[in-house]
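Supplementary Note 2. Why include the ligand at all?

Several targets in our set were suspected to adopt different conformations when bound, so apo predictions alone were not considered sufficient. For every target with a known small-molecule partner we therefore ran a joint prediction. The input for zinc ion is given below.
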Amino acid sequence: MDLNDVFQRIDDYSQQMYDTLMDVCRIRALAPENEGDGELEKAEFLMNVLKDSGFENARIVKAPDSRVTCGFRPNVIGVLKGSRPELGTIWSVAHIDVVPPGDLGLWNSEPYEPVETDEKIIGRGVEDNTQSLIASLFAARAVNDSGIGHEYNIGLAFVADEEVGSKYGIKYLVENTDIFHREKDLIVVPDSGNPESDFVEVSEKSILWLKVTTTGKQCHASSPERGNNAYRAAMKFLLKADEYLHERYGLRDPLFDPPISTFEPTKKLANVGNVNTIPGEDVSYFDMRILPDYDPDAILVDMEEIAREVEGEAGVTINFEKENYDRAAPPTPPDAPVVKKLISAIKKVYDNEPKPGGIGGGTCAAIFRRAGFNAVVWSTIDEQAHAPNEYIYKKNLINDSKVFAALYTE
Ligand SMILES: [Zn+2]
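The joint prediction is reproduced in token form.
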């Protein structure tokens, strides 16, 4: 019995995997924020598939939520015990909720009635996040049915509420249960990736979007001495801040592409409606993506200081509002066991050289990392999440399943 036998089993399961993925797609699972009634029907369907796959102890962990009919948001948890359970559990954490289809006019088919072609399956949620869910589930089934044996426990967590913030999903499980073990468990969140399957996300930048409102005094353009040009002062501030931040926070981190923090003045609101008026107010925005080495609060302090200087020079007032602020979680070390094992498993299936790296921000692996877990993000997809006509390649579903099988049995 070797890994190729397990791979053969996954090939044999392939039509069943497509069919199950399409069954899952047909069951809507929308958050109450999206006019949905939660994920219970899909969770119950998955409980049955898990039980058929050897997860006899599969259970639903309920996160109370009075906005849905059943009164809770379901998180489906299944564990197959390994031969050395003291090593810990290799988790695949996939979410079962989906986003609404959006403008139906952009779809060429019914979003919740999946279409299967020779190469693809099309439907809402097939990529985000059902491909990875089915891939890890059938990998576990293949490993279990083959009798090849596995040292680590195999854990599947099919969670609720990822699309609207994870309060009733991953956050609930991390904060209110002891399902995940900090020291031992390896956590894969297969909810982002690229078509080449060569990227394992271990780190992210902080995101800070700043709205900058500069207030002077409006007047006629022919007599500027009667007012105070807010637009000119805002330009001074933006340029000063831009230059200062790039110089002061210029560290390079090769994990990231680009390898630097980015500080970009972006949006600007329209000011006065005519050419001969000096604007009394200017509203501009900064988009900042900050390497995890830096504290975004320190950057804000620096910007405040520059603002006070410009206020003194120009006689205006400058105010900040945070439009979006998401502090980077501590990175998972690129040499952590979960990273090394996953990369080794990917290489057994895809002919590539996967690299650990960082992204601009915002995956739910950050919830695990903030809570002290090592977690990675990987999958093989065309990045269709939330798009109309969302699709997956069937071959990616099968190959990703083989990667999970290799990971489980390493
Ligand atoms: Zn997702």
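The first strand starts at residue 59 and ends at 64. Residues 3-26 form the longest helix (24 residues). Comparable summaries for the other entries are listed in the accompanying table.
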